[in-house]
Amino acid sequence: MNRHDPEGAIAEAAKSFSNWGRWGADDRLGTLNFLTEDQRRAGAALVRRGVSFSLSQSFDMNGPQKGWRRRTNPVHTMLDTGTDAALGVQGFPHGIGGADDVIAMPLQCSTQWDGLGHIFDHGLAWNGRAAEKVVTSDGDLVTGIEHMAPYVAGRGVLLDVGRVIGENGELPDGFAITEEHLTATAQAHGVTPGRGDIVVVRTGQLTRVRRDGWGDYAGGPAPGLSFTTAGWLHGSEIAAIATDTWGFEVRPNEFEHAFQPLHQVAIPHIGLLIGEMWDPDALAEDCAADGEYAFWLTAAPLPITGAVGSPVNPIAVK
């Protein structure tokens, strides 16, 4: 890998690991096609104890966002309150009162999915479509994330790379997770991520910023997947992957003068559903305690018409 030539490396990986046309010219699901009904039934059979874990961070003003590219933390506003009810100003009969609220936020400000319309490569979107014909001011007209809403449920696999490879359960910022690290972690956990799986990678960065403060969590240095994992992401035929970091791939990126090169291959060429800012810590503790790193996972995006990303509250059940 020539660190001075991101353009060449991206072009080579895009050619080698492209899924364009694999599921037909009209495909809108990408690697979610690997998650079949049979695999979903097998994933549901992993539920034995019935214990469940939310893998979502909070959606509130105390989040990590700093306004980069207009990404801000959620603003929650009450429309009706208990005070209004107590004062009798709501205008309802026979003493009934209520509360109502609204939230304003970027769709990718906390735990979220990157949709297939989120990233382009040289003006091309997933499946080789022209970006300007896919995503317009009206939204993603072709691969809007609403099309994925029924399908993101199946076998989840936790790869706690922070626990296996890191120190005290954490990887340092700038640590590039390679295919060898993923494989070693899977072997340590006794699992084999494969076709149709939803893989959750824990680096431990979220654990660290909870302890030390957000700092530059939203966009700064972070552990994450190496660009060299593009082949693994393609060859393993996983349906989706998520991490506990802001940007999924290692930051700073491994090339000079580059920005998120793995995204540029994984989303528009592999068609991979990518999750960011997930919170696997409680699940990871339970997996370490019982030695089981596979579970039922449901993580449906909100069916927001034409959206290129979506908030999500992933639920793992063991």
Task: Offer a few descriptive terms.
318 residues; alpha/beta; Glucose Oxidase, domain 1; 2 domains; nine-stranded mixed β-sheet; two-stranded antiparallel sheet; 25% helix; 18% strand
Written account of the structure:
By secondary structure, the chain is of the alpha/beta class. It is built from 10 helices and 15 strands. The chain has helices spanning 6-16, 37-44, 82-87, 131-134, 161-165, 179-189, 205-212, 230-235, 261-270, 281-290; strands spanning 52-54, 75-80, 100-104, 112-114, 135-136, 139-140, 153-160, 176-177, 198-202, 224-225, 240-243, 273-276, 294-298, 309-311, 315-317. A 9-stranded mixed sheet has the order 1-15-13-7-9-11-12-4-14. The protein has a two-stranded antiparallel sheet with strand order 2-3. A hairpin with a 2-residue loop joins strand 5 and strand 6. Helix 1 packs parallel to helix 9 (261-270). The longest helix is centred in the N-terminal third of the chain and has 11 residues, at 6-16. The model has no long low-confidence stretch (mean pLDDT 97). InterPro entries: KFase/CYL, KFase_sf.
